[in-house]
């Protein structure tokens, strides 16, 4: 089914003045629905191949690729879950600053991958707010940064 380079072959007819009659006859015979169903089945097949057994059990009864995707999206919470984790994020008592920055960067990258818009200013605000939370061992650093950058 897959080509030699791992891709699926597609034959898409481009509408022009020479093939309009052919394409319109396909539409009148409802072949468009058949083509759409084929593509949906391929997409569902690919989703089935890309999930582990636990997730497969969740989507095995899905009748369409969209339905399977919606089940997976609901299961993992999508952008809302990541955004909530970001909002509740705080630095642990024994955590190094660089490790905390790494955790923030991972969450920001996940949010951006889900389509969220996160500006550098929002990230700086988050870092400065959470560095001053108890215990206040970084207060003097935060004040110095805010004064030097006019934040």
How would you describe this structure in keywords?
elongated; UBN2 domain-containing protein; 2 domains; mainly alpha
Task: Explain this structure.
This is UBN2 domain-containing protein. Pfam families: Retrotran_gag_2 (PF14223). It comes from Mucuna pruriens (Velvet bean). The protein is mainly alpha-helical and 151 residues long. It has 2 domains: 37 residues, no CATH class; 72 residues, no CATH class. It has 8 helices and no strands. Helix 2 packs parallel to helix 4 and helix 5 runs antiparallel to helix 6. The longest helix is centred in the N-terminal third of the chain and has 20 residues.
In terms of DSSP E residues, the strand content is: under 5%
**Morphology:** elongated
Main beta-sheet annotation: none
Number of strands: 0
Rg (CA only): 25 Å
Mean pLDDT: 78
Quickly count the helices. 8
Helix content: 55-70%
Q: Which stretches of 5+ consecutive residues score pLDDT under 50?
A: none
H-E order: HHHHHHHH
Structural class, judged by helices and strands?
mainly alpha
Number of domains: 2
Span of the ends, CA to CA:
58 Å
Organism: Mucuna pruriens (Velvet bean)
Pfam families: Retrotran_gag_2
Protein name: UBN2 domain-containing protein
């Amino acid at each position: 089914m897959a080509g030699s380079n791992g891709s699926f072959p597609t034959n898409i007819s481009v509408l022009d003045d020479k093939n309009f009659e052919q394409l319109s006859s396909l539409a009148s015979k409802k072949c468009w629905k058949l083509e759409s169903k084929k593509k949906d089945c391929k997409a569902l097949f690919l989703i089935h191949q890309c999930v582990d057994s636990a997730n497969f059990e969740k989507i095995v009864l899905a009748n369409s690729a969209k339905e399977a995707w919606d089940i997976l999206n609901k299961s993992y919470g999508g952008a809302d879950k990541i955004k909530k984790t970001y909002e509740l994020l705080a630095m642990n008592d024994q955590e190094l600053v660089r490790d905390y920055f790494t955790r923030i960067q991972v969450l920001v990258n996940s949010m951006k991958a889900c389509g969220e818009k996160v500006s550098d200013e929002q990230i700086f605000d988050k870092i400065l707010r959470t560095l001053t939370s108890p215990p206040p061992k970084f207060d003097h650093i935060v004040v110095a940064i805010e004064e030097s950058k006019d934040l």
